[in-house]
Amino acid sequence: MKRLLLFALLGLLVVGLVVGGCSKKPVKVRVATDATWPPFEIVNEQSKAIEGFDIDLFNAIAQKAGIELEFINVAFDPLLAGIAQCQYDAAISAMTITEERKKSFSFSDLYFAAGQVVTVKADNAEITSKDQLTGKTVGAQIGTTGAIEIGKIQGATLKTYDDVGLAFQDLMNGQIAAVIADNPLALDYVGKNPGKLKTVGPVFTEEYYGIVVCNKNADLLKKINEGLAAVKKEGTIEKLMEKWLKIKK
User: Among the listed ranges 3-7, 141-145, 178-182, 187-191, which one has the minimum average pLDDT value?
Assistant: First the structure.
């Protein structure tokens, strides 16, 4: 009888350990990203893996937050619709925090300061800032703040692209007069195309990036903000700026 009781107690202990172990398993989070926005998110041509500033940052946050990430590459416009409908748990895609977007989903605390800048062909002497874009066709990725800013320029014609790289390609081919995009992205394209592109004028908006979370998941947002605070404290943002943007702070 004592032996049976001992086996029963051992069985309960094993079950308890299994259940306890399962409860500590990281929560799996489906993360949408538009991997066409270097150096924040891009598909590595050799490995085909998604990489970049945002990917490294979210992975660091995930370690602190006790969550497991599954990155899903999706175009920016469907990304916005998908996260609003909670098809994805979260999204990171160099996304500017705006009041309009806050109506559809939640944002984490900010992690990066950026702004819009004009890019033109290197030999263009006519356009020196956004003030010379009246009457011109200007490219931007659909759904971005760059596209929104072009819409504010009287007389400018907006041409949208699913992939911002195609906008810069059209610019180099002379099919559009300029591109408006986030300054880190613009500088990345200028750096990769020496003698072909240049930025002109100042960065003319003040914007901040945040991680997007489905409105139905307040617990995930809390975990992400706690993880973000931890990696900020450790200086991870500065390390990633040096790695991906070549900026030392």
Answer: 3-7
Q: How many domains does the chain have?
A: 2
Q: Residue 109's domain is classified under what CATH number?
A: 3.40.190.10
Query: Could you list the residue range(s) of the whole structural domain that residue 77 is in?
Result: 26-114+209-245
The pLDDT tens digits of the residues spanning 155-212 come to 999 999 999 999 999 999 999 999 999 999 999 999 999 899 999 999 999 999 999 9
Tokens of 219: 């617990």
Nearest Cα to 32, choosing from 163, 209, 212? 212
3-state SS, residue 61: helix
How far is 191 from 209, CA to CA, in rounded Å? 22
- pTM greater than 0.70 (yes/no): yes
Quote the Cα angle for 68-74-79, to 5°. Answer: 90
Whether residue 102 sits in one domain with residue 217: yes
Nearest to 108, CA basis, from 58, 44, 154, 173: 58
Beta-bridge mates of residue 38: none
The C-alpha atoms of residue 211 and residue 22 are separated, in whole angstroms, by: 27
Q: Which sign does the torsion angle of CA 63, 26, 75, 92 carry?
A: negative
For residue 64, what are the contacts with CB-CB under 8 A and spacing of at least 6? 226, 227, 230, 231
How far is residue 136's CA from residue 154's CA, in Å, rounded to a whole number?
Answer: 10
